[in-house]
Amino acid sequence: MDVTVTPCVTENTLKYENYREDFERTRNITWLISGIVEFIISLVGLAGNAVVLWLLAFRMQRNAFSVYILNLAGADFVCLSTHMVSSILRLMEYNGLNSNRVFQVNFIMFVFSYIASLSFLSAISTERCLSVIKPIWYHCHRPKHMSSVMCALLWALALLLIILNVGFCNFWFGYPNRYLCGLTIYSIITWPFLSFGLLFGSSLVLLIRLLCGSWKIKLTRLYVTIGLTVLVFLLCGLPWGIKHIPLFWRSLLYDRDIIIVSEVLDLLTCVNSCANPIIYFFVGSYRQQRREQRKSLKVVLQRALQDVPEEGGSQGSPPQETLEMSGNTHVT
After folding, report:
1. pLDDT band per the 50, 70, 90 thresholds, residue 195
2. Average per-residue pLDDT in the chain?
3. pTM given for the model
């Protein structure tokens, strides 16, 4: 019995094959380009954050805000490490189950570092806001080790969310608990948006206090550092959270345009983590006098965290007491 193939079926088959070929070609080109760019940005960012970690951990006396900056640099370092691994795997064109497992673990670590970095940035902005709104409480009654305790709690919270998600949502073993899995996913989605709410609200209050009438406060390098860091996150880091946090449980995207957008947003998060050390050293070295051009990176970073207005346009290195931004809030 002869079986005839209708032209409609043949045409649909050809369209599907052409679509798949176009999809594979677009995906491979996108992964190649993004992998190369991501590798370069990650390499620069890792070096910058490593310098910040080394200076704040071993070369400078830590205080309230430098503790947050130290932990933010650690989260950015982890984030950039995941970008580095992802770019290497893509450039090496890994395939198979083991590769998928590596990608899954790498993605989990990325989400962990993303939640942690957003939390630290929100804590920095919120505490700076409190120091402006309640200066007497902040300088006289603020707990001495508040920064260290907050950072430890934020690390623990981010880690807990990831562990619960892996345990309840069945990445590799057992059967998923749908209710608990949904609850943890909801928590992972909700926490970044709550953190963003704190970040936006506290940043808005600081901006109003800097610009408005009788409430106006003097601009310091610390305000500039925090403001630029928040701005870069809003432009480069936040879009990934809006787009991908709801898609946390999906491992593959099949639409060609979505893949391109996804790669662009991944690159933006890489730029966000890479930009923070650049911001610190740019703010710290801005408007230096010629005799100060060869100041050490330690002094440049100290200037970026300076919380005292520069009097009379003097751009010299601030004395050590001006670098201790919170008086009695030193952290050992």
Report:
1. confident
2. 77
3. 0.81
Q: In the 8-state DSSP scheme, what is residue 331?
A: -
Among all chains, which residue has been given the structure tokens 């189950």? 97
Contact (Cβ atoms closer than 8 angstroms) between residue 154 and residue 191: no
Tell me what pLDDT residue 328 has: 41
Q: How many CA atoms lie within 13 A of 215 on its CB side?
A: 11
What is residue 175's DSSP assignment?
A: -
More confident residue, 176 or 231: 231
- Identify the DSSP state of 311: G
Q: Which residue has the tokens 């409190």?
A: 130
Long-range contacts of 222-226 (CB under 8 A, 24+ apart): 222/65, 222/128, 222/304, 222/305, 222/306, 222/307, 222/325, 223/128, 224/283, 225/279, 225/280, 225/283, 225/304, 225/305, 226/124, 226/125, 226/128
CA atoms within 13 A on the CB side of 124: 26
Confidence check: pLDDT of 95 > 50: no
What distance in Å separates the CA atoms of residue 136 and residue 88, rounded to the nearest whole number? 51
Secondary-structure percent of the chain, ordered helix, strand, coil, rounded to 5: 75, 0, 25
Q: Which amino acid is at 260?
A: I
Q: And the tokens for 64?
A: 């309230």
Tokens of 24: 């594979």
Distant-in-sequence contacts of 200-206, Cβ < 8 A, 24+ apart: 202/122, 202/125, 202/126, 202/128, 202/129, 203/125, 203/129, 203/227, 203/230, 205/129, 205/132, 205/133, 206/125, 206/128, 206/129, 206/132
Half-sphere exposure of 176 (CA within 13 A, CB side): 16
